[in-house]
């Protein structure tokens, strides 16, 4: 069962900024994974979204 909301608001906002500003695709993918996990997405859902 996924844990929802494990990031603080400040952490989430920082990661959202990184997602928009990072030029490195690996960084954007890792940040996106964290944000999706924070929203309660399962590993299977995340894998399907990211590929």
General description of the model:
The chain starts with 8 loop residues before the first helix and ends with a helix. Helix content is 69%, strand content 0%. The chain has 51 residues and is mainly alpha-helical. The protein has helices at residues 9-21, 25-38, 43-50. It has one domain.
Features of this protein?
single chain, 51 residues, 69% helix, mainly alpha, 0% strand
Low-pLDDT segments: none
Oligomer: single chain
Order of helices and strands: HHH
Q: Please tally the β strands and state the result.
A: 0
Give the helix proportion (percent range): 55-70%
Integer-rounded radius of gyration: 11 Å
Largest sheet: none
Beta-strand percent range = under 5%
Number of helices: 3
Average pLDDT across residues? 94
TL;DR?
The protein has 51 residues and is mainly alpha-helical.
Topology:
Blueprint: H1 9-21, H2 25-38, H3 43-50
Helix pairs in contact: 1-2
């Amino acid at each position: 069962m996924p844990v929802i909301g494990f990031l603080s608001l400040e952490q989430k906002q920082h990661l959202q900024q990184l997602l928009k500003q990072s030029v490195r695709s690996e960084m954007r993918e890792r940040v996106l994974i964290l944000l999706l996990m924070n929203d309660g997405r399962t590993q299977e859902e995340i894998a399907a979204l990211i590929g």
